[in-house]
TrEMBL record:
The keyword Membrane applies. The keyword Phosphoprotein does not apply. This is Chromate transporter-domain-containing protein. It is found in: Cell membrane. Residues 262-271 have a biased composition (Polar residues). GO terms for molecular function: chromate transmembrane transporter activity. The chain crosses the membrane at residues 92-117, 129-151, 163-187, 199-216, 318-340, 360-382, 394-419, 431-455, 467-489, 521-540. Signal peptide: none annotated. Residues 230-304 are annotated as: Disordered.
Length: 543
């Protein structure tokens, strides 16, 4: 009988020490982002690339592009989901949750304080305040435009992705609906999937070969002398043998050219002693169009290479089954909240704060495209309900552009105002709105990362990401356009109008862009410079 081994005691001290070490590591790297990351999601992505790819090297460029695509493709705050996933990969769930708090709380506390202040002001603001807010908006537009250009340089790897960035931007400007942005990104992903896996190349080549063969048969059977467009010397007069030889030569040339084109698009293989050798493997997608062109000389197609081997430090330690269970559980809670909201539509049935939570939970679930998209939807769910007036909404919209951290902290401002307007506790309203709008995106992206760990190395996934990524970058230009159209605020038009209505705001936007692009001015400085220029305009106009 083998001796029984006593169970090893749990090393609580060791675990506590390891947890403290990981928490310090997360705090050391993330603490300042909630105070310094101004400009909204497009600028946040640029900051994350510098911080986590170039400096700390917590992830590589390929993983960054993957997370960017996943964050944009799912509902909720895009930059918040990316930061959450980066820390999830690095140190696990507790680290990801801690990083989210460090990221979101500074801006959330500031927006709460502003909500309390705004609730005490008169119906109209002093004109200098309007000038300040317009300057903040104009400076923010320049910063977001710069971020869009820089992210485009990463997303564009060939002519197709350049087209997808352009189409994503223009399509997003022309139409707006809840279902629209996800469909655009999915269609772009399908386009690169078809292109990279060359699903259409063989049928198209076969059509060209068949066409060339059919033309040759028609030429040989042509009963009216020479074939139109051919010279007499080529036709050989009326000599049928000469005409036939010339036709056969022409046919062989055409088929040969089609064959060469097909061979060029096919995988590069060499035959030596009857053995096929695969072309050199390229490990990941090119970062820029120039790198893509250089890589093309060594390999015929990125999609035809072996799947990328994911380094162990970039892998998650939970399975796709757990990820699927998390997603299913979320949708169960979502259905329960929405059914309750529908059955008891009025506050007499359920407390007002529950309806506030339900509206924010719904907004956080159906918003795709991040901060720029949340603004009009929250207007529908809060202003249209009569909880917050339009003026306070627009004041909050201008202020959130000047605050660091996620734009979804705007919900804290609206939640506090809603509670104040109905005689409820503003802290409770702010917390309920904050939890309601952030939780759907974080829960879904956490579950998705479990599934993602099982499929991320597949070639078709890499091809799909290229298109989703390109379309998502294009939608950032849509955010530039949307803020531009309502950024100019004054006493006579508190709902906002186009910054282009006054040349000074165009100058402010251009200054912000040029300062960041060629003089390395940081985003917070550029936005504050916009506010200062807004005050200068007020001083000149009223002098």
């Amino acid at each position: 009988m083998s001796p029984q081994t006593s169970p090893q005691p749990l090393d609580f001290a060791g675990r506590a020490k390891a947890l403290a070490s990981r928490s310090w590591n997360v705090f050391r790297v993330n603490w300042h982002l909630g105070f310094t990351a101004f400009g909204g999601p497009p600028v946040h992505f640029r900051i994350f690339n510098v911080k986590f790819v170039q400096e700390t090297k917590w992830i590589d460029e390929q993983v960054f592009q993957e997370l960017f695509s996943v964050s944009q493709a799912l509902c909720g705050p895009a930059s918040t989901k990316m930061l959450y996933c980066i820390n999830l990969i690095q140190d696990g769930f507790l680290a990801a949750l801690f990083s989210f708090l460090l990221w979101s709380l500074p801006g959330a506390i500031g927006m709460y304080a502003l909500a309390v202040g705004v609730s005490k002001i008169d119906e109209t603001l002093p004109r200098p305040v309007y000038a300040l807010l317009s300057g903040l908006n104009a400076g923010t537009v320049g910063v977001i435009a710069l971020a869009a250009v820089e992210l485009s340089e990463k997303a564009i790897t060939d002519r197709l992705t350049r087209i997808l960035v352009f189409l994503g931007a223009t399509a997003g400007m022309l139409y707006n609906a809840l279902w629209y942005f996800p469909v655009l990104m999915l269609a772009s992903g399908i386009a690169t999937l078809i292109n990279d896996l060359r699903w259409m190349h063989q049928p198209v080549s076969a059509i060209f070969v068949f066409g060339a063969s059919l033309k040759g048969k028609v030429v040989r059977a042509w009963p009216f002398g020479k074939w139109p467009g051919r010279s007499t010397s080529d036709a050989g007069g009326n000599d049928n043998g000469g005409r036939r030889n010339s036709v056969e030569d022409e046919e062989s040339i055409e088929i040969s050219s089609v064959g060469k084109a097909t061979a060029t698009s096919a995988p590069s293989n060499t035959v030596a002693g009857g053995a096929r050798q695969r072309a050199p493997q390229t490990s990941d997608l090119p970062v820029t169009e120039q790198e893509a062109a250089a890589a093309a000389s060594a390999s015929s197609s990125t999609a035809e290479t072996e799947p990328r081997i994911i380094p162990s430090e970039f892998r998650l330690d939970f399975s796709w089954k757990i990820g699927t269970a998390i997603i299913v559980a979320f949708f169960a809670t979502f259905i329960a909240v929405m059914v309750t909201r529908g059955v008891f539509p009025n506050p007499p049935g359920l407390p007002l704060l529950y309806h506030l939570f339900a509206n924010m939970y719904l907004a956080g679930t159906i918003i795709f495209g991040g901060g720029p998209v949340v603004i009009p939807l929250l207007r529908e769910y809060v202003v249209a309900e009569g909880w917050v007036n339009a003026r306070d909404f627009l004041i909050g919209l201008a202020l959130i552009q000047a605050f660091p951290g996620p734009n979804f902290n705007f919900a804290v401002f609206l939640g506090a105002l809603t509670a104040i307007g109905r005689g409820q506790n503003p802290v409770a309203g702010a917390i309920i709105a904050w939890v309601g709008i952030f939780s759907p995106g974080l829960i879904l992206v956490h579950g998705t990362m479990g599934i993602w760990s099982a499929v991320r190395s597949k070639r078709w996934v890499k091809a799909l990401i290229r298109g989703v990524n390109a379309s998502a970058v294009g939608l950032i230009y849509t955010a530039v356009y949307r803020i531009w159209c309502v950024g100019y605020i004054d006493e006579g038009f508190q709902f906002g109008k186009s910054l282009g209505d006054d040349p000074w705001w165009v100058v402010v936007t251009a200054t912000s862009y040029v300062g960041g692009r060629w003089f390395n001015i940081k985003a917070p400085v550029a936005i504050m410079l916009g506010a200062v220029m807004g005050m200068i305009r007020y001083g000149v106009v009223t002098a």
